Amino acid sequence: MAPAKVPAGLVYAVFMSSKSARQPYTAPLDRLLTLGCPGGAEDVWREVPFDDYASMGIGPEHAAELRRLMFDIQLHEQDAGAASYGPVHASRALAALVLPETIPDFLELARKLDRLDDDLWLDDLPKILGRLGEAAIDPLARVARDSRESFGVRLFFVDGLERIATDHPETRDRVVAVFVDLLKYAEYTDPGINGKVIYSLVELRAVEALPAIKAAYATGRVDEMFFGTLEYVEHRITLTPEQAAEEDRKAGENAEASLEGMSREEAAKAVGEVFDRL
């Protein structure tokens, strides 16, 4: 006989009862404890749109409680069913309010998640940071420049800046200028950060940044695992999104055809060599 499914609310109630000092989350935030993993599966989490938190009655007046839930890392790490994703939804709901005063909270959240190696939630941060728009550019740029910050946090903030430029096209030139400024110090910057900045510039089709990109490659401190050689970057940065998608499609077909012509052992070795370079 299959085990009975325990209601998410009951799991959360048991969790809360074991933590007598915890203050419960009341309506409407309690709705966030029932939503579960965005999209229903962790492998598609990052691409899943935000829920309509406003329709749940969540507004700016709930910012403080959203912050409390967002930083409830203990709840997130517990096996509390759907409630474990409550902090994730709180971060999305807080970002959806677009309150500039919450930007430092998201910077601190990124640092906490990086220390916990919570890559799944970190992968969601660029989408969250993109919601914050132009007001977040300078704070994210300061962290991305700061070599005292962890590599992971800086990497995700570069991704966040790219997302801002994508979601808010009017900020594109300003973000490109931040990336070009970062590359001025490529000689003293982690090659992975330089590689990610160049990747983002290619994604933004920032042809005007090519001189800075060439100068960065000349320092020998660009991790080519992000976007390959300078010659490939020079080619790719000029493509339209449609041309880039078509090129990717053909490359995928060619790779698949190459694998089909190999024995299982040869294919496994070829795939393993790719991952070894990552």
The biggest sheet amounts to: none
Instruction: Enumerate how many helices there are, as a single number.
Output: 14
- Share in helix: 55-70%
Q: Which assembly state applies to the chains in this document?
A: single chain
Distance between the termini: 45 Å
Kindly estimate the percentage of residues that lie in beta strands according to DSSP: under 5%
Arithmetic mean of pLDDT: 87
Q: How many separate domains make up the residues?
A: 3
What this model shows, in words?
It is a single chain. Helices cover 58% and strands 0% of the residues. Helix 8 packs parallel to helix 10 and helix 9 runs antiparallel to helix 10. It is globular, with a radius of gyration of 22 Å. The N and C termini lie far apart (45 Å). The N terminus and C terminus are likely disordered.
